[in-house]
Amino acid sequence: MPSAPEAWSRPQRVVATLVAALAAALAAQALHVPLPWMIGPLLATGALGIAGLPVAGSGRLRNVGQWMIGIALGLYFTPTVTALLLKLAPAVALGALWALALGYAFYRFLLATNGGPDGVDRTSAFFAAAIGGASEMAVLAERHEGRVDRVAAAHSLRVLMVVVLIPVAYQGLGVHGADPTQPAVLDVRWPGLLGLLAASGAGMLLLQRLGTPNPWVLGALLVTAALTAGGVNLSALPKWASNAGQLFIGVTLGVRFTPDFIHAAPRWLGAVAAGTLAMMVASAGFAWALSQVVDQHPATLLLATAPGGIAEMCITAKVLQLGVPVVTAFHVVRYVAVLLLTAPLFRWEMRRAP
Prior knowledge:
Elements: H1 10-30, H2 36-50, H3 59-74, H4 79-87, H5 89-114, H6 122-129, H7 134-143, H8 148-173, H9 190-209, H10 215-229, H11 239-254, H12 259-263, H13 266-291, H14 298-305, H15 310-320, H16 324-352
């Protein structure tokens, strides 16, 4: 008689989770859900985890998924697109400033709703509100003696909401394909693909050796973008590889949701949810205003400035055909700016209001 899922080894749980995620992706695709290969696995894995089933993700598969997404995004950086992005540099810088301002406003909101002797401390609220990578912000929170569990929960819920709500809204509004951009090469050339995998893999290992955060996305993206911008078009990425990358990332997001996640600090999670909705509305207004100044579709600029993760928002742009290189450039610059400036801004805030 087969053992209960709780008694399964970790590899068995990883495989079972992937099977469930694949079934969810295929079902979401059949139902015409936007981003089926990411949203389907994310929601299914999260629901199973909240129900108490022992779902598990693989860090190695997550890295492979980020590798595939980095390559897929880098293929859009043709010489023409690169020249366009240089013209958009002031808007990209403004987008990074917007993320920092949005994060600070979110921090003040979290303090107003959850502060006080019985609420969340300022350190935890600050790093929970920063519009940056969840793992990087959790490390900074731990370094400054914040509540890592509160920070991780806030980032998980924020990314989940952005990843699900914006694509669903876009599908309802019919903006799919409103700002299409084609990658430099459309056909898979196996010798070239092997060379592309080798070159991007070397870039990832170099960034990892240098201690760069998120080397799996950034290393593959930077190498592929540099090759593409230089006119070196080795191969397209097979569609199944891109889908697998989305599935692995969806599982990674979904396994964060457990029964403890739901039962812990409901007031905190409620404030995070309300604040995330407010940030999405504010970002929509900012994107519309920015579109009046630069020649970009508002839907593209919303993805570029929304409070989601770099991989998730760029995947959304790719699948929905909404200015992939523009969204990617905004998020890469924002990611670096938030990573470098969050700790100094935190120290300034603590001196300003001890």
